[in-house]
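Data availability excerpt. The first of two example chains:
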Amino acid sequence: MAEDTLRIIPLGGVGEVGKNMTVFERDEGIVIVDAGLAFPRDEHLGVDLILPDVSYLADRRDRVRAVILTHAHEDHVGALPYLLREVGVPEVWGTRLTLGLAQSRLDEHGLLQAAELKEARPEDGPTRIGPFDVEFVRVAHSVPDAVAVVLESPAGRVLVTGDWKLDQTPVDGLRTDVGRLAELGSQGIDLLLGDSTNAERPGFTGSERLVGEAFDQIIPRRQGRILVACFASNVHRMQQAIDVAIEADRKVAVVGRSMRKNLNIARNLGYIQVPEETLIRPNQLEEYRPGEVLILCTGSQGEPMSALTRIAYHDHPAVSVDRGDTVIISAKPVPGNELRVHDSINQLAKAGAEVLHQEIAPVHVSGHAYAEELRTMLGLVRPKAVMPVHGEFRMLAAHSRLAQESGVPAGSILLTENGSVVELSPQGARVVDEVETGVTFVDGLGVGDVQDVALRDRRHLSEDGVLIIVATVGGSNGVPSSRPEVIARGLSEPGPLLEEMQAEADKVLRDLLAQNVTEIKLLQEHLHDSIAQLIYDRTGRRPMILPVIVEL
């Protein structure tokens, strides 16, 4: 690699929403920006989390210098423990809140000593990280302490926006630093890696304060219990709900392990202010009338074991909803979670609660820039080349159109995929190669050991069921001692068919043994094929068939 060349390789977050991870590589070393995870879709049966494939980094572990975290959301920091375990990274950089939440996650995995945590301070100006001069620029987002990252080297100056929006009235007063972005634009940005999540949406996204104003309109007028569900990392949203609860003389109970943990971390670091006497434990709720409490809880995405889902299905030990209660779902369903969220809403409504969500009340705003804000960013930094990231392909395409309308030459707009190798040099940016990349599944305690064949089997089982044929052979005359037993799970109406399958299995087995076919594998194969044909002829289904031969 030439002295003035930089290789940029997205390992996740391109052509998808989630698992953001981008490699910045020079001869002197590698710096990684973000280490995110994604949540499984319906087809990922039994999978808990999805991580980027870091084998490219594992093969170059001796050259990895640091990972930089732009903010504390799971799709940007959730894979950090797995990255440290698989690759080993000497330094982790992030702002104070980002490091606080990341530190808690590393502690859970027993990895507190795995890397040196270093605080990123936008006000300090550039600092040397690996082979780059790195600067952090404050941006507004739905979690406090988010930053954009500038990486400078002889190859050029790269701006990674992270997740951001132009919020003129943020809850903490810390706006996106448009002044510094404009200065960087004047100095020259050679490549912009820009958040594309809302590139298709016209206009500007609303300020976070709009949600607080909605809480102010809703909460004081309600008589029953009020439940507010949001992401556990949405510190500003929690603060606004707490502020309104205090004004309405309501006590606040925090329900859900991740939300309690994040609230404590944010309080300790000074990002949330709440009087001690306002907070009560969930098991104290029964001591107060319904109109005297507000419950902050997890479960805005309909997660099966989350607080709100358990409450909706009357499965929570400390919290229930009744007629007259109000549930505010202050989040938008992540793509793929819509059905689970709708199920929770229906169950809550069935219990008599009024459910307010973003489709019927202004109880949520996005943390990602809309099209006009993306135009503003492009106008501020005037990049020579643009690489849309963080979004499905249609979002990347919409962002690229905005870049072209802003004057970026079509040849300098890079629509990439995970694994694309982008080379930046003084001659410009271009896609030159691709590396093998994919996903790593987390299934229970196993990381990376769920193969495609396992998912295919799970899908097969979920659709057509399973049939187990247990046959006993041997004895003095080598014939079956009894009719084979057929065990069916997940087959519709197996009753009469079960008898027919048992008779067929018995006939096949006796015929084979009469012909002196005794090899176990052959017996299993013939049993499998004959029963599979019988079931398909009768039902049109293809269940998984597992013949078991027991020799006496």
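And the second chain:
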Amino acid sequence: MVFKRRDEKRETVRNRERIMSGKINGHGNINKKITAALLCVSLFFLTGCGNGQAEEVQKGTESTENSGGMGRYVEEILELPEEINRNGGLNMLSDGSMTIISFNSGLWRSINGGVSWQKEETEFFPMMQNVYALSAVMAPDGTVAVTCSGEMPEAAKQALADPLPEDWAGNYCIFVSPEGGVKVVDFGFTQEDGSCLATLQFQEDGRLFGGDMNGKIYEIDIEHESLKELFMMERKVGSIGFNGNTLMAVGTDGLYLYDLEKGELLPRDTVADQFIKNALTEESVSYTGGGYPLVVFGGEDAVIYIACVDGLYRHAPGGSTVEQVIDGALSSLGDHNTIYLGRELSRDMAEGSEKDGSGEKESAGASEDAAGREFLVQFGRMLARYRFDASMPAMPDKELRIYSLEDQSSVRKAATIWKKEHTDMYVRYEVGMDGEDGVTKEDAIRKLNTRILAGDGPDVIILDGLPVDSYIEKGMLADISGLLESTDGEEALFANLVESFREENGAVYGMPLCIQVPLLAGDTNVINRIEDLESFADEMEALRQEYPEGCLLGICDEETMLRLFGMVSSPAWTDESGEIDGAAVTEFLTQVKRIYDAERAGASAADLEVLQREDEELREYGMDVVENNIQICNNVLNIRRGYARLACGYVNGIQLCLDNVTSVIRLEEAMHYKSFPGQEKNVFVPKTMVGLNVRSEQRADAEAFIRMMFSGEAQENMYDGFPVNREAFAGRFAMLQGGDSNGSMLLPKKDGTEEELELLWPDAGEERVFTELVQNLDTPVEEKAWLDSLVCELGTEVLEEQRSVEDAVAEIEKRAAIYLAE
């Protein structure tokens, strides 16, 4: 599917790399969200940072100039206008002003260091509308460069020297001179070659460089409208920065250094390479919304600066260590959802950015020494000014410890909010499996358990993936019901969700920050007859009788089928004591086998080939095919395409998720959706379960932190699912007006035609229907990855008729007994 428009208030695009090329796969696979926090972040030093060369301090430790005494960076927050959301980052101009090119609202300028912003009308802005803007930058002299992907708008076509074919869709660039002259250039990138210019960056002398999605770095000659290939990286290009005449480019395998004077690659810096590989916990080196998870830029005496979630670091080329300048745990740098663009600026430019409209420095300006330590960071719609304060303790007296088995963006977002109001506290976020040391899940849990029992455990524990039942049984978790019940009025949580976690003694030992909601969509009469897993199988067989040919669910692989129905059935597989309920597992495999057989009975080889080819295309982009295919937002599109009659799976947001479902329902007669029933009803999937260590040494602060995590302010920026806070939940629907267009997709249909599906924001009635559904959810899916994997493994053999249901259940019970005994 070709994605045609994304100019909404908040960016939650799925399938990052495919949308960047202006193309979305025909299977409706628009995968992982990029949240509002994953907007462009720009980092600019106002002057040199620190004094001298890197010291012998490793990653994750304090800077030697900050350790064991007084002095650290403090953060001042400046909010940007609401209209500045998806954007190309902060640009510092030679006249002392700052600009941001917002992809959905145009050019904004500040002449007082980011305190206030004014929008400016431009001729080029209409040329980047109704397509996907990838990067938009401005040189110090005011030259603009923008790269876009999609079907070129009429305003851009009119600026072309030569006309393009009517159905042209690809990658084009917009260039604007300081005098206002505009030109649009097609460098020949197409959707078919899977590439486009995705990264642009001006050097301070005005030379323009860019990187494409295949890993090539170019110098771009605006005057002659040409590209000069400089070198090829191993994979996709990340942040581009400059260190004198050396171009630096971040890749998944480390830092590429290119001598612009000699025109050749320099030897790799192995220390910087290893640091970057360790810091990039995910494979992605850039984000669709603009910006990066890690950025490099040059500093004084050729020092290389590196900014990432762990903080700000510097490294002397050829040196053996990397020095931490700012600890991410003490700043907004530690928010994992933030991304950066950056370069160091001269003192003159720094002083210019501190002036107000009258040309005088702000009265609150720092001393000369402090002024030499200031810089700006842009986090989405927020500017942070960092200033070295010699009067602040290098390390706060108090420490709050948070733990999760895997990195959780929602936790980092909450920690950032907390740090703004608690500068006297160090927030230490520990991740049990950070991908750096090869620790297994079992090893991480064993180590955590030992710490907790020894009284040295974290204060706040994110319970996802951990043996929660065992923790409750052993009295390791505190009752947090009072913290949840203290929220009322606008801060109230969904009472039904809280109650679903209440134990017989009235305690609540864990509560999710967000939930995913399983839905079933299709003909209203059909889905109304489906009340459980058995009736689902009955309706599938009835549909197959009515429609002998064609897919019914559009899902034909065994693992997806088992995972999909396991999502709404797994709570039934264990009894109150935690033992396997063999009868329930038998029922599950029996009914899923009926569903699978009905699906496969009429699915043609041609249909299967299309769906399997689309799945393979997803794998080529590193996406989890099974996870993609248990999301109803993808499956519901197959109803319009002619590859399904029913759709089921979970939703975890509105954009390109719930709005897919409601937009299709508007077009299909007699179609609706309901809660997806399996062996259990009214099921939801909790995400980011929060618990409190009963032996926390910072009990009062930990309780206050947990209370804050469930506040409207914290939850409005958490996108792992729908917030459990009612105010934040309602806020998701308020991002656009009901019925407003949220973009469109070009759907390739089974009959060979194409349909443009316009995505419309849910209106008041659709919001009410979904809210009422959420208010009736009462059965959480308790995470038991070991049991899910076991049922899936043996269940696959059942669906493939390699093993009987009875044999499979016997083997599941046998292996489960061994696991539980351990």
